[in-house]
Amino acid sequence: MTANTSALPVAPALYQTWQQLRAEQPGLRARDAAAKLGVSEAELTASRLGTDTVRLRPEWKELLPALGELGTIMALTRNEHCVHERKGVYSEVTVMGSGQMGMVLSPDIDLRLFLSGWASVFAVDESTPRGPQRSLQVFDRQGLAVHKVYLTATSFDAAWAPLVERFRAEQQTAELDLQPLPQAKAPRADSEVDVDTLRSEWSQLKDTHDFFMLLKRNDVARTQALRLAGHEWAEPLATVELTHIIEEAGKREVPIMVFVGNKHCIQIHSGPVSNLRWMDTWFNVLDPMFNLHLKTTGVTELWRVRKPSVDGIITSYEGFDAEGELVIQLFGVRKPGIPERDDWRALAETATPLIG
To answer: Is 80 exceeded by the pLDDT of residue 1?
Structure first.
């Protein structure tokens, strides 16, 4: 990836090179093609302007609610090792007054949006062997895909063109002004952390959403906090337990919440899982309304985590990659004000911790 210019300086030239690559490797996804060409996915998408792509104005407060006009869509959010796809209507959208945060809380599409990191958005209307594929694609300032919305067979196709025209950017430019990723802060040494304070504050949590502030106050990385919290609150598990618990939840018909996200968007599925399939090292949920594609080799740490709340203990499975980034979280389905499901807790407690 480059900072401000493409490795191929002229967007049409990049587009032609990409098409040659696609001819050689027809199944190659845009994300992987960008990596092969040494550019970001945003640059690759911008190279399509004037062909099958339109740049839109990043007016999130108006654009996001307008997506409800498309009817049933497929929302896609991913990170390096996991893809989360959920079908539903993009409704009940809230963008906070500052424009930095947003939420979608419809019955099927459940998102937490960190809009300060959203930089560019494109409408793509692509011809494929299976027919037209229409999508809105959002990228961050590094050119990484943050969130995508695809039309489905039951979407309101007639709403697509008016929506694109309404939000079309005046300047259809491929310029992105990409920025290098800020250097991550190195975690403190364990010896510098006040473990007693960390454990005390953990024991006094009232809501799982307060956990982020606990990490910030104590200046600890997430996996570091899990390691120091003590076995009452966090236990390491063998990584194979991650797919095992999803399989068991499917067999026992225990509805689960599956959180997958990146730095700027978190997407949540709440409900049962049933059609589970392995494809090499990829573990997949292939249900009608929910698809998950998990690259199991990307999860190098798994923790069973317990957090106190006003509704009692809330138990989760949290999978991390080699850089300590959160890949996936699992909870039992619940709403605020309702205790954790007994069947989920029983299932979550079956795995034997690696130590202790």
So the answer is: no
